[in-house]
Design a protein that fits this description.
This protein is α+β, with helices and mostly antiparallel strands. Helices cover about 40% and strands about 10% of the residues. The strands form four sheets. It has a three-stranded antiparallel sheet with strand order 2-6-5, with no helix packed on it. It comes from Ananas comosus var. bracteatus.
Length: about 220
């Protein structure tokens, strides 16, 4: 976060001499080479002025905050605010890492049991490709929100199925030993063990992360 003394595109300048914009500017090259994302900002669109009036006025967005995907995932709700210019020709920048949050949010992680559910990879691809034309920060936030919502519905389903299995096991075990249905006890027990296993799994690190990222087209750091 700093004054880069350079604009990213022609829309970030008003007034002054008209010049041919160089799409291969040092700032754009720096952003592309480093894989940085321009953090979305609120407030005045231009951060610098020449402090002149009328036709001589010139406004530019020279100040900005750039971040890589790791930083964005660590602070997914961050907000950059351009404060009003008071005693300077530049707007002060305020970077709020946790706006309007009353408690610390847990770091988002994919859980391994999600991978055991049918259609998980297809769901990730669907969410990721739906927002292909949006900024990376917003795209990652949408992916996190959508997957959390998707996982929540499946978690409730797993708990309901587990409760049903426990109820079935209980009823079978209450039957007399010589009852013919007692032989079916192994099936709901196996189902319950599978459901409990899914709830206790956590996504492993290592090569599987890269493999899954390549297969779904999502950033490896997200996993």
């Amino acid at each position: 976060m700093r004054d880069f003394n350079c604009i990213m595109n022609p829309k970030e300048k008003i007034g002054g001499l008209s010049r041919i914009f160089n799409s291969k500017s040092p700032l754009r090259k720096f952003q592309q080479d480093g894989g940085f994302v321009d953090i979305h900002c609120n407030g005045p669109g231009y951060t610098w002025t020449n402090n002149r009036q009328g036709n001589s006025m010139m406004l530019q967005r020279l100040d900005r905050a750039l971040a890589n995907s790791q930083w964005i995932l660590r602070f997914p709700f961050s907000r950059l605010v351009h404060l009003p210019r008071i005693a300077s020709d530049h707007c002060p920048l305020l970077l709020n890492l946790t706006p309007n949050l009353h408690r610390r949010r847990k770091l988002f992680r994919i859980e391994s049991w999600w991978l055991t559910l049918e259609g998980f990879k297809e769901k990730v691809k669907e969410i990721w490709l739906t927002s292909i034309n949006t900024p990376l920060q917003r795209r990652l936030r949408n992916l996190v929100f959508s997957l959390q919502k998707w996982a929540s519905s499946h978690r409730l389903n797993i708990r309901a199925r587990a409760a049903e299995s426990i109820n079935t096991i209980s009823k079978l075990q209450e039957l007399p030993i010589n009852h013919p249905n007692r032989a079916g006890e192994a099936t709901p027990i196996a189902q319950l063990e599978d459901l409990m296993f899914k709830q206790e799994l956590y996504w492993p690190r290592g090569r599987k992360i890269i493999g899954f990222a390549k297969e779904t087209g999502t950033p490896a750091i997200f996993i």
